[in-house]
Known about the structure:
2 domains; glutamate dehydrogenase (NAD+) activity; nucleotide binding; Glu_DH
Amino acid sequence: MSENLNPKQIAQSQLLKVRPFVEIPEKIFLKLWEPERILKVRFAITIDNNSEALFLGYRSQHCSWIGPLKGGVRYHADVTEDEVVALSMWMTWKCAVMELPYGGGKGGVTFSRDPMLVTPERIEFLKDYFPKKMSRHVLENITRKFTEKIAPLIGPDKDIPAPDVNTDSQIMAWMMDEFSRGVGYTVPAVVTGKPIVLGGSLGRNEATARGTFITAIKALKYTKLLGEEKTVAIQGFGNAGSIAARLFHEAGFKVIAISDSKGGVVNSNGLNPRELEAIKAETGSVINYKDGERLSNEELLTLPCLVLVPAALENVITTKNADDIKAKVVAEAANGPTTPEADEILHANGVFVVPDILANAGGVTVSYYEWIQGREQDYWDENSVNMRLEARMKRAFDKVIAEYEKNTVNMRTAAYIHAVKRVVSAGKLRR
């Protein structure tokens, strides 16, 4: 039934699922059910064909009991208010799993689909155009307008945005600059994921993939599968997927399949991630790689392999394909790639899942390190960042395993138990 729920309802169902394992006073439970606040903004922009387009932006702040809000900003045609709320809830649990002094926030920008304003043809044009085909000028205008609108909610001690889907260090530079203009002085710590010269952290770009890799190796050691043939399939070849492919390859794994939004390639003898990066940069897709056979994103998920890394979209593993998953470990680099029902099927079939709020928490962890460096004006070398990240990822994995063994639940529920306990404890102390 929950496969028909929207993202917010799925996030709420996950909170409901851990209630039997965590003592949550009713008042605190009710507060965690909805975000503390959500801001919806609008702005009109002249786009590249000199027409006017209406854009909608959101910033959801779920729970600030442990500290400032933290979470990315995504630019995508399918952004909705419910999606942004769900992602802010998941950020609360992700920060709590990693024991970071943050609560969960999330932002998103999309275009208006109001049928009184835009025709179906116009919607199709905007879906294709936003944001990947936008000029730098229009993208900057959107970023600055969105930042101006949400400025009252953000700040180094209030809410710290970061990159997410279709946003990057340049977007963060514009956000930081626009916020700084408003207050009259430079505020590097208002965002993370910035360019290094503007106070970004070394290791931040690779952090999500590195955290996924570290926890996948921990899972293989825990399940005593590390001695098996080291094969990995990766769905999604953006920042997280491409860097994860490189890390697994460098560690001696055979990367047998990789895909992007247009499809994928498979080669049982292994693919070279560096060559795939070059092909994608040159042609726009990995499907143009010659040393492999084409396959669909759906086919990639069910390939026989030791590790499967969903690093693309939400809800790609469902009841329709969960029984066909042949990987022994699933390490979720993407947010919400597995539906609740599919989760139960994977668990029953003996597939060990490293859930998203643990597996992909490397990004927010190094964002935390960047925030510390920005506040202290003290910048760390990359080795120091990576060592701190590895230690924290391993510690979080071990704490989730403790709940997994104690409560005889799947790994996702174990991660939520660990996270919710921490947030509830903070709520009890502050109420």
